[in-house]
Amino acid sequence: MSEIIEVSNVRKDFDGKRALDDLSFSIQAGETFGFLGPSGSGKTTTIKLLTAQEGYQSGSVQVFGNAVEALKDPKQMKRIGVLTDNTGLYERLTVDANLKLYCNLYGLSYSRIAEVLHEVGLTGEESKVVSKLSKGMKQRVTLARTILHKPELLFLDEPTSALDPVSTERIHCILRTLNEEGTTVFLTTHDMYEAERICDRVAFLNKGKIQLQGPPRTLRVNHSDSSILLLLKDGREQLVGQNPEGAERIREVIASQQLASVHSNEPTLGDIFARVTGKELF
Question: Which Pfam families does the entry link to (predicted)?
């Protein structure tokens, strides 16, 4: 796969305060890449750099193989979609009227509206006024607006923040489908569960620096303590080591027909983040 984003040794300051410090990472075409970090860690600033909304003091940022500044060309900008806490929706207009405005902006046929509303599960909601929608529905309309022009690269800044579990799962399903269809996704979040469910790789960002990065599963295995968790049929849990004594205990539990399941005892992404940064993700 080719690299669709490449960031090398980037430094970004605000009023003399370091926001991003020697930031380096790359994203392959077709990946879903998660940036994990607490509020104020530099996640939103990174998205602004990657979408040419902010400059930087030193380093290099390339998107689609070109300097990020090329995204200021409207033709190049149409290759990306950006979802932030600013919905870009007109509250007094209907869903249909909002999406027609963006169809006009992108030079798209209005027939695309029915397609994109189907993609986000909002078929039949075209005539509803945006201000009357639930937070979850409004976020799906915002996502519809973001993917209306079928961008190659999608930037999502905390896309499920403050949503209920049902709305969150709907957004996750949409993002997985988009990714399966070839869309590259850059996602910022402080939700470790979200990152593990939908991201191919993640990076831990703290105080403007990447502390650790890799596939979620690999990170969990690499930071496990090598113990094994036994779940018994009576609800009890037992931890055993990967050694002769542990093997003997497993054999005994199996022989007693009390074993319900066996699991490696791996930390969550939140646990790992706390270990390497000394901070919680929330």
Answer: ABC_tran (PF00005)
